[in-house]
Amino acid sequence: MTATPFFDGSTGKYQRNKEFASDHPHDCGHYQNLTFSLSGGECLILLDLDNSIISPFLALCRNKKTPENGSLFVSGRPLHKAGRLFAFIDEKPTRSNLFTDMSYLDNLCFLADDRILLFWSKRRYRRSIRREYLPLLGPVIDAPSLTGLYPRDLYELVYHRVLLQNPRLVICVQPFAGIDVYQRLRIIQLINILRERGIAVLILAVSLSDSLQVADRLLAGKNGRILREIDRADFSSLDSVHISKE
Q: What phi and psi values does residue 200 have, to the nearest 5 degrees?
């Protein structure tokens, strides 16, 4: 992946190969001094120990609130100007990120018009994507709607649509919540595919679950502040109970 110059608000300098940073967004919700950055292909967990961080952070990312101080950047662009350089995968995304009445293929292609001019007016573009993704998704790609499809097919659709979008950052909200063991293993594989493509992955979580299997770093936060930063090398000795009491 070609490294993109990235502005690090904490130093006032441009760095390379940084895909996302939060620079001191004070007084939005309940958190303060929340400063971190991700590089391309890196996975970071933001562990919210008391539900004081995720909701206001998502409000910022979705432009529902603005920080009184500080900024969010994706590949050097302010978040509100980043467009489809970043993507969301919501908690239980098969309910919130997909369109039930649209075909499987149209759901897959939903964000492709940002990359290909006049995408929806040219059938050959969709035929080309179908040929590319049929070996990956199987015959379900021809389903006329999402009604009655298996959850595994819907999760495949969610993550492959993001792969087709090819953003610089993906924000995953509790990706392992409410799913079975098989699907957890598959989501671990899909997140790793995102990382192999050079996409930065930010996991917002309220419990560790299976997230440590894909993460490079963990930020544990409470009362709106970051308590600890933990590198992957130290995950094996991680005591989530102890963290929650800090």
A: -75, 140
